[in-house]
Design a protein that fits this description.
The complex is a heterodimer. By secondary structure, chain A is mainly α. Chain A has helices at 2-6, 11-14, 16-42, 47-59, 62-87, 95-113, 119-148, 152-172, 206-223, 225-235, 237-242, 247-274, 285-295, 300-315, 317-324, 330-346. The longest helix of chain B has 50 residues, at 46-95. Classes of the chains: A mainly alpha, B mainly alpha.
Chain lengths: 361, 315
């Protein structure tokens, strides 16, 4: 009886946790948009016109939606590279490197197999090569963390630079296609190996890969014993050890899964957009993926939404330059502001009066 | 290339020259990071601070060179770089000390924000030529032009070399040094002493960012002496690893910076004698070196000797 009285039946009260989890990031996003507007005004552009342009370029038409979704699909996958290890308490930022290594492995597999096998089989082989390569790349950072105590944030970031150097070395040297003069590149993938588009659109099937990967990641983390073990270890590693959880294996497995998602993003980029391996593969999808992961609070389903939102912002980079005379780095500034606002909103959980539990009277 | 006359001697000479030139940014950023981490907070955002410093230094030097002349303009640039760094430092220092905010995540956000801001404001300065800092020609005794150009030393580098022992003395022998170490090792004890952890950490982060901003000025006003968007290429983050390697000791930061500056020069040095087929792999040498050093020096069992006690711990 006393318990029933202590819990008021107000719907607001009952739903305060989920409401808080939606309202705070949304408020942070709104604050970021306002701060960005002030920034644009200082830079001499009309903030309302800039907002209008971003909306039009990102979500204003079917064509804009297609541009947005094309950019969102690698973002969903690279975000998982940060989001999954984060559930284990690791801050991995090697997304860009895993993407590059995945793209590299996919191109190597695609060029080696060529047209010897049926195209779908070769595509699967390319995807597996990318998944394994990207996975091992990030698992390396996880292994260094677990066995040597090396800070995984710094090691995974260093691995980015090493991956990019490796790719540059290969496309300038051993893998270079001398017939292609625009920039140092590998040979082109056979047209039969490219990922096609969804019927009636310019959106490639990579979007489906991203959506499926996010759903699998969500089920894995939230609905399986494996995910429960990983979250336990992330919450309190000492308790997890005492409970007998294999923390080392969990670390390696989760890092592998995260890296394999980013590796798959690399495969999609080479097989759907770039068609050959060159420096264009390094296009900041990795770093933007870190932002997506943090804004979605490492929840794989929220990742889908945030990736679409950020995909839209990335798609509007060109129009800001053309019609408002703002440098292309404007998009990067906006991303930075969003990131900072979202981090600040983290400190407000449980502190705002509307979401607070009723004080005991 | 002038080094051709020296044949294979060009390689060690090139590495020596590269060490003298390339270690200055490492030195400033690592000293700044050392100061910050001594207070118990990590600032990964120094990569963004470095870019912001490089851009402000170059921009201010370019804009003021007609007013104050080409000798003083770069020095104004150096000051601007420090202040640009401080602005980012204030944001980091305030946000990273909010409850339940992870300082590593703030650092990543500051990398994106700082580099974005630097590219945004620095767009007009990519083409024009700004006045560069003067250099001391320590190689004037030699008639060989390669030796002469190799031994051009920047006053900023010498300043960095002087700051390292000063900072060491500051930590060991001054009241403020003790405050910073107390806050970094045991915030509770510091609070019991009546020290404000917030103020001390804020001071350490802002002062560290000032140094890192000057590190950026080394890049754009000394070597390579231009402003481009790829100018820092992860040096700010390598400096964070360097501080771990140096065991949070400013004097060892100096030696470690020289080592990293040298590693960075391997690729160009080999290229200058005609070996360029592994150019990109040699250029990855500093990253691989950092990783190898971290693997050797870290341990999963014990905390590192010299590590501030509160580093990386939630309050």
């Amino acid at each position: 009886m006393a318990i029933a009285q202590a819990a008021p039946a107000s719907w607001l009260y009952r739903w305060r946790r989920p409401l808080e989890a939606v309202a705070l990031p949304a408020a942070a996003l709104l604050a970021a948009i306002l701060i960005f507007g002030v920034f644009c005004a200082l830079a001499g552009a009309n903030p309302l016109a800039v907002y209008g342009s971003i909306y039009k370029a990102a979500f204003g038409s079917w064509s804009a939606w297609q541009n947005t979704l094309i950019r969102a699909s690698p973002l969903m996958l690279t975000a998982l590279c940060t989001a999954l290890p984060a559930r284990l308490g690791l801050v991995i930022i090697g997304n860009e490197g895993a993407l590059v290594i995945g793209g590299l492995a996919a191109v190597v597999a695609g060029l080696q197999l060529g047209t010897a096998l049926p195209a779908p089989l070769t595509q699967i082989a390319m995807a597996i090569a990318a998944i394994v390569a990207g996975g091992l790349w990030i698992a390396l950072a996880g292994a260094l963390r677990h066995y040597r105590g090396v800070n995984e944030t710094i090691s995974s970031l260093l691995l980015n630079y090493i991956a990019i150097a490796l790719m540059n070395h290969l496309v300038e040297g051993p893998m270079r296609d001398v017939a292609f003069v625009t920039k140092p590149s590998s040979a082109e993938l056979d047209p039969s190996l490219l990922i096609g588009n969804l019927p009636g659109s310019r959106i490639h099937y990579g979007l489906l890969y991203g959506l499926i990967a996010c759903v699998i990641a969500y089920v894995l983390i939230q609905r399986t014993t494996f995910g429960f073990a990983a979250r336990t270890a992330g919450g309190n590693i000492r308790a997890a050890r005492i409970a007998g959880l294999p923390v080392g294996k969990l670390t390696l497995a989760v890092c592998f899964l995260g890296g394999s998602a980013a590796g798959l993003a690399g495969m999609i980029e080479v097989a759907a957009v770039q068609k050959r391996l060159n420096a264009s593969l390094v296009s900041n999808y990795g770093y933007a993926g870190i932002l997506v992961a943090f804004v979605s609070r490492h929840n794989p389903l929220a990742t889908v939404l945030v990736a679409i939102l950020l995909g839209g912002i990335l798609a509007s980079g060109g129009i800001l330059q053309r019609s408002h005379d703002l440098p292309d780095a404007t998009v990067l500034v906006f991303q930075g502001i969003v990131f900072l606002c979202v981090l600040f909103s983290d400190s407000l959980y449980g502190r705002l009066p509307w979401f607070r539990e009723k004080p005991a009277t | 290339m002038a080094t051709e006359a020296l044949g294979w001697w060009g390689v060690p000479l090139g590495i020596l020259a590269g060490t003298l030139r390339g270690s200055a940014p490492f030195l400033f950023v690592s000293l700044g990071e050392c100061l910050t981490e001594k207070s118990g907070k990590i600032n990964l955002g120094l990569e963004g601070t470095l870019l912001m410093g490089a851009m402000s230094a170059y921009g201010v030097s370019y804009l003021t060179q007609d007013i104050v002349g080409s000798f003083w303009a770069p020095w104004l640039g150096v000051l601007a770089a420090g202040f640009g760094g401080m602005v980012l430092g204030v944001i980091h220092g305030w946000l990273a000390q909010q409850p339940r905010v992870n300082d590593v995540a703030v650092g990543i956000a500051m990398i994106i924000f700082g580099s974005g801001l630097a590219f945004f404001l620095g767009k007009p300065f990519i083409q024009p030529q700004a006045s560069q800092l003067i250099t001391f020609n320590l190689g004037a005794w030699s008639s060989n032009p390669a030796v002469q150009s190799a031994l051009k030393v920047s006053p900023l580098f010498l300043m960095g070399v002087a700051i390292a022992p000063l900072l060491h003395w500051f930590f060991r022998a001054t009241r403020w040094g003790l405050y910073i170490r107390a806050v970094g090792d045991s915030p509770q004890a510091a609070m019991a002493m009546g020290i404000s952890t917030f103020k001390v950490r804020m001071f350490s982060i802002v002062a560290g960012s000032f140094l890192a901003g000057i590190g950026g000025a080394c890049l754009s006003l000394y070597f390579p002496g231009v402003w481009t968007e790829r100018i820092s290429s992860g040096q700010g983050l390598m400096a964070v690893a360097l501080v771990i390697f140096a065991r949070w000791n400013p004097l060892q930061c100096l030696w470690a910076s020289l080592l990293f500056g040298g590693a960075q020069a391997i690729g160009p040095a080999f290229q200058s004698v005609g070996i360029d087929s592994y150019y990109y792999l040699f250029n990855a040498a500093p990253y691989i070196l950092t990783l190898v050093i971290m693997v050797i020096t870290c341990s999963p069992q014990r905390t590192l000797i010299g590590a501030p006690g509160a580093l990386g711990k939630e309050e």
